[in-house]
């Protein structure tokens, strides 16, 4: 198993509760790799272990050829991981541009000092504006982040993550709470990212998953139930039995054509 990101028998226990049970996966460079599963499948635990905000009980994590199992989240960020969360973590009182510029400053080793607006440094401002253009927010650069819609905040979070020039972008339930139109726009944004950025997405919206993913891993009760191309996962009978308990979910997988 070789990939930009690899987990080997990754396990997390809480006493007698096994939240993640010997999960091994490989995320190829340039892939759009989705992790799906019912509630309680272990998706959030996997995300926390990969990003370094939680330590595994057992198993290993390798990123870009290096064992990062014992490294904290900030060290993984410096190595090329960037992440967004289910819940926004923006400086809502600051303009959109300054939110991105602060991340740009940090990535450039200029520190996070806010003695003056981060966007006033010409090179930082230009770099931050490029990220806003990429995510479609250049026209909102001067407005406070608090004034953005829910979908726009998600776009801003991606711009902040991209400002660090990551090798791997980790997205945790990025379309949660979005309208169908916002979800479609967010999918377009992810599609627009170049192959230099590998994406690992934890997502509940199967329309988004099967639109974006080049590979899908299905978790169930903390274990890998299936792993393959979207078509392979759609056709897997074990996935259908475990994941599809009603006609509504069946429609998400098969569009009501079974």
Your description of this structure?
The structure is a single chain. Mean pLDDT is 87; it is low at 246-250. The chain has ten helices and ten strands. 37% of the residues lie in helices and 23% in strands. The two termini are 34 Å apart. The longest helix is centred in the middle third of the chain and has 14 residues, at 122-135. By secondary structure, it is of the alpha/beta class.
Lay out the secondary structure.
Blueprint: E1 5-14, E2 17-27, E3 32-36, H1 43-51, E4 58-63, E5 66-67, H2 73-79, E6 81-84, H3 96-107, H4 122-135, H5 150-162, E7 168-172, H6 180-192, E8 198-202, H7 206-212, E9 215-220, E10 223-228, H8 230-235, H9 237-243, H10 247-254
Parallel strand pairs: 3-8, 3-9, 6-7, 7-8
Antiparallel strand pairs: 1-2, 1-4, 4-5, 9-10
Helix pairs in contact: 3-4, 3-5, 4-5
The helix tally amounts to 10
Average of per-residue pLDDT values: 87
What's the number of extended β-strand segments?
10
The CATH architecture name of the largest domain reads: 3-Layer(aba) Sandwich
Q: Helix amount, in percent?
A: 25-40%
Largest sheet: 6 strands, mixed
- Give the SSE string: EEEHEEHEHHHEHEHEEHHH
CATH T-level topology of the largest domain:
Rossmann fold
What is the quaternary state of this protein? single chain
Apparent shape: globular
Kindly report the spatial arrangement of strands forming the biggest sheet. 6-7-8-3-9-10
- N- to C-terminal distance: 34 Å
